[in-house]
Known about the structure:
Keywords: Membrane, Transmembrane, Transmembrane helix. The chain is an all-alpha fold. It has one domain. It is flat, with a radius of gyration of 15 Å.
Amino acid sequence: MLFFVFLAYSLLEWFVARQKPGREKWTVLALIVVMSIWSAFALWMNGWPTPNQLIRFAFGWLDQ
């Protein structure tokens, strides 16, 4: 369910960003596509890492 809420919000953001000139609209579209795919995998696959888990994995060595 949360996936669909995020998807609806991101489509709203795309319609707002689409009216802006330049590369900003394509950057927003790329982020929407990547995050939608990430959320879909998290919805349908058990054990899919959350963004917080990835941050802890990448920067966990800073805790020591």
